[in-house]
Structures are given as C-alpha cells and as structure tokens.
Structure of Nucleoside-diphosphate-sugar epimerase:
Amino acid sequence: MSADDDQQSDAGGPRVLVLGGTSWLGGAVAAHAVARGASVTCLARGRSGEVPPGMLLVEADRDAGAEAYAAVIARAWDLVVDVARQPGHVRSALQALSDDAEHWAFVSSCSVYARHDEPGADETAALLPAYDGDTAGPDRYGEAKVACEQAVTAVRGDSALVARAGLIVGRGDRSDRFGYWPGRFALAAEDGGPVLVPADLERRVQWVDVRDLAAWLVDAGLAGATGTVNATGPTTSLGHVLQEAAAVAGFGGETVAATDDRLRAADVEEFMGPRSLPLWLGDPEWQAFMDRDVSAARRIGLSCSPLRETMRSAVEHERALGLDRPRTAAGLGRADELEVVGRVRDAR
C-alpha cells in the first residue's frame, strides 16, 4: 500500500477494516461500508475475488501470524469485521488490532451448536467442544468457530458482536445449497422435464441473504451493538421456498415428490455434497438446523429481504454460472435427478 493509498484510507467517514474483504461475505461487508460513506481497508490474500470498488486492499497472508497485520496496526479503527474460520487467524488479529479497534464484529456460525433437534433454540443452547489448535480442517468447522468465539471473548469481553450466521444465500453463493432450487426450476422450464422434490414440504427452512447480513454487520457494528446472536432470518416451510423458486424461474411443469426413504434408497444425500438434495434434512437429529430463535438479532437491527427478492438474485446468479453445470458442492446433476425420478416412479 502506497503513501497515497494511506492518505486515501484516512479520508472522511468511519474507518472500517475488513479482514478478508475479497471473499463473498467479506466483499459484501466492504461494499456496504463504502456505500454508507466509510473509509474501508480490506486485508486479504487477494485470491478469492476482486476488491469491491472504493476501498483499499492490503495483501497479506494471515498464516504469517502477527506479521500479517503490520500495514494496518497502530491505527484507530472504528470497526473491525473478521470472517475467519481458523482460530489462529482470529487470535493473531485480536493480538495485533484489538487495542486500536473501537468496535469488533466476528462472524461465527450456527454450526457451533452441539445439537440441532430442538426447534426455536436460542443462543444459550449447548456448544460443541472448542477446537484445540490454530488450524482446523473442514470437518471441524463448528469446533473451530467455537474456539474463534472464545478467543474473541477472551480479549474483547462483552464488547464484541459475535454473529452466529445461519445458511448464507444470494448472489455470489457457490455452495449450491439454496441457489440449486431456482436454478433447477429454471433448467426444467427450459427442457420441459420434471423436478424432484422432497415429499415433506412442511419442514422448516431458515437463511439469511448475504446483503442483509453484510449491511447489518456494518450498521450494527458501527452503532456499538454487542453480544452473541443467531444471525439468520425467520423460518418458513420448505414448500414455500420451493414455490417461490419455481415462480421466479418461470416453472409451471411437474414436480415429483419422494419420501425420505425413497430418496435414501436412491443414494441421495441430505442437504449438501455430491448427489444431494439441498435443504432436505430427513435426519431427526438435524430437523431444527434451520429453525433457531433469532429474536436477539432482530432486537439489534437485523432485518431480512423478502424471499422473492432473494430468489431473484439467486436465479440470476445461477443463470450466470450455467444452469446445467456439474453439481459437486450440493445438488443433483440433471441426469442423476431424472434417474432418481424414474426410480421413484417405478416404486409407486
């Protein structure tokens, strides 16, 4: 970062530092902060995407520990937003920056909870054991986020906002866990084929639009909001979600409903991963994974866009990526889906 860049970062407006501003959520946080007149600096490796317009990028690898923050220390930050998942990254950031940060927001996850079978559980629910180490693999994501939360609390006490995000969706999402549905209905509207859906459409679904989460992190963070809250949206039925997905996709064709047992017999996985059916959670131990109390977050300003608006963003993103692309993160490829449809029909 040059001297001119440094002068630009000292321009008017609140000073916001985003740790990871080129990733999906981090980029949305940075973009919203710029839109509300903040001077925004993003510290990131710069490999996850483009830096949103109007902000400065400080390229650094957080694996380097405290040295990674050399270019951003000893400054008065009005807000630091950290989206990290590795405990070591969170600890080193706090060590380097906490004394100079008026407000701190950390993005955690509802995956920190030990159980997901109690509808409407709030933030007092039992957590997973904290990961003991600095770097965790994807299979220890929840435990790592618990350790991250503990690190934030150890340094900031009760003067931080810890946002336990739910399923984050919308434009830019590459997880396919939500966008699969408007994308699949759009593809079926083009090819005239049926769409496979779970038979139980009353199960609860809960999500948060990336734009809503990002805006709230910045606005609530700068306002001095603190506490640990479930940062996701209200619940609705899976049937309502699929109805909206079909509507924005212009789908008016046939849906084929399959029970949990028939989906399992066809080797379809739940929720995510290859050959899965997104948003389907038939396991009783996971029935409330997307059904958590969000009243605490709503009290400090989290509001959510209408489902139709989020669906429109999702289907536009799906069309840009390609409706018939291979599905590896979540979802069924079209050929696999039609094969399962055939098996379900044969079993009737």
